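Q: What structure does this chain adopt?
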Amino acid sequence: MAALSRSRLTDWTTLVPLIAVVVMAACWGRDLPGPLIVVVAALLAGAVLAAVHHAEVVAHKVGEPLGSLVLAVAVTVIEVGLIVTLMISGGDKTQALARDTVFAAVMITCNGILGLSLLLGALRRRVAVFNPEGTGGALATVATLATLSLVVPTFTTSRPGPEFSPAQLAFAAVASLALYGLFVLVQTGRHRDYFLPVTQEGSILAEDADGDGHADPPSTRTALASLALLVVALVAVVGNAKIISPAIEAGVSAANLPQAFVGVVIALLVLLPETLAAARAARRDRVQISLNLALGSAMASIGLTIPAIALLSIWLDGPLLLGLGGTQLTLLALTAVTGVLTVVPGRATVLQGGVHLVLLAAFVFLAASP
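A:
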């Protein structure tokens, strides 16, 4: 037992997050030279890989779909903290940061993670199969949350810009929390089977509900240790992403890209753990777990961020811009329609995966060249 404990303490998945947090604390608030930025970026990548490992350990212990929920909520809570920190310190240029980051998260999850998962699943089995009842309900919740929080502000008339009045913002926050809470209850309670992996014939893999029936579940002690290290790794990911964000902003400015593109880059970094976890699940023929991660992350990003920003707006000066522009509205509508057509059959080929990945590429390109 002592040898096992020492082995775990010296494992890279334990050491890298701890080192990354120490470096984050040492570098916080400082201007970093180029070589140190490279070191921080390397530790950021290592923390991402460690987060995926510990998330899989926790997911194996608690089973699906609760396992997918752990990583989605953990990443989103820290993402909210990052947005809040940047908004407090960024001044007027961050008035649209919450909108840009949340919209980027929705496009990355609903097109990037979802498309990659379908592509990998279809390449493995020619046809990727999943449960249309659960996935369809998740997609409907994402579409409703995105519309209420990001589309409606563009068309309301109480304020001159694409922003809510205080009463409208409060309603959007309460509605977001209520919808997200209802979805979690459905996903983990009475209709839990709608979110479990299925076979090619469409039957539920009840005997493999943890998502990986090839090994015994870890002990409670191991799972709790991985849960703690998961939180440490995610803090390291978001914290080090913030540390190198000035370098990212400088690069964006040097490339003559719009300020909103910074939010896209930060969202890509923060969502790396979920992307890698979803890809690994898809390669193991557990496409439903990948879709749980993708759509659950999109829901958590809206359902937790909007209420937090609404509360924060009491102390922030200046307007809070939430409404999307014309190009963004078009991409969101196309994503919703394409998602419905993909989900309804419960089966997808490489074509559907490719379509969603092209939509992600279009979003990134148009964010860089609006």
